[in-house]
Design a protein that fits this description.
single chain; mainly alpha; 157 residues; 0% strand; 68% helix
Length: 157
């Protein structure tokens, strides 16, 4: 049973890694295009759109790389969970306001995938492996290192 749990954790980690790297690829290399997508939601002041877009794109990429390498899996899963909750909320907001714009989620889908209920349900499905990794991060194919504490000798006077 433990072996099955480890395989599920590995599959969840690799799926999320692929998801976040794939989603961030265009955003990192075309920050202006992603900034346009972020600006369409009208939830940030225009002054913050460019910096928030660049920051978000790189956070997605770093989460994906960390998950792929198995570095800080639980922390990466926490960040992935937080981002997916925000993304789901934005999709529900788009559904509520009736906005029919491209969600800006994945590369090559301009005007093919609108923000709304369908995208929110998709993001909720993506949330399942992230939540799994929060509680069962697994130990297979991870890059692990530990810092050793140095023992200091106490000098008493």
């Amino acid at each position: 049973m433990k072996g099955l749990m480890e395989l599920i954790s590995l599959a969840a980690r690799l799926f999320l890694a692929w998801l976040f790297i794939y989603a961030s690829y265009d955003k990192v290399w075309d920050p202006a295009g992603f900034a346009d997508s972020v600006a369409r939601y009208e939830v940030l002041p225009l002054v913050l759109v460019n910096s928030a877009s660049v920051f978000l794109a790189w956070v997605e990429m770093i989460i994906g790389v960390f998950l792929l390498a198995g570095v800080a899996t639980r922390s990466s899963a926490l960040w992935a969970t937080l981002l997916l909750v925000v993304f789901t909320s934005l999709m529900l907001y788009a559904e509520y306001t009736g906005a029919g714009y491209d969600c800006g989620c994945f590369p090559g889908q301009h005007d093919q995938h609108t923000a709304g209920l369908e995208a929110a349900l998709r993001d909720l499905a993506f949330l399942a492996p992230a939540l799994w990794l929060l509680f069962k991060p697994g130990n297979r194919l991870i890059f692990s290192f530990r810092l050793r504490r140095r023992r200091t000798s106490r000098i008493s006077l």
